[in-house]
# Entry
Amino acid sequence: MHIQIINFQLNGVTEAEFRTQCDGLAGAFAALPGLHSKVWLADPATGTYGGVYTWEDRAAMESYLASDLFKAVSGHPNLSGITSRDFGVIEGPTRVTRGLIGAPV
# Structure
């Protein structure tokens, strides 16, 4: 498993408009090969938004980073200050603490 955390700020769009855009994009993310889950993040107090992605492996994440979907999102004029960090998962204790619910065993 591999985790990716993406954060950004909104630029020229309200949170309500952004949430509507997210609803429209959710299906495209759900169809990504190797993506087990995406948790959509919002912190209106700081203006920070993003997602936590659980990938099958680093290769699946890298395929997403090379995809047209990522290029469209990362180049979107309503998103600024985009950061992406990725982490390997220590699977044993993560399973004990239910961090991979729904992921294949």
Q: What stands out?
A: The chain is about 35% helix and 35% strand. The chain has a mean pLDDT of 93.
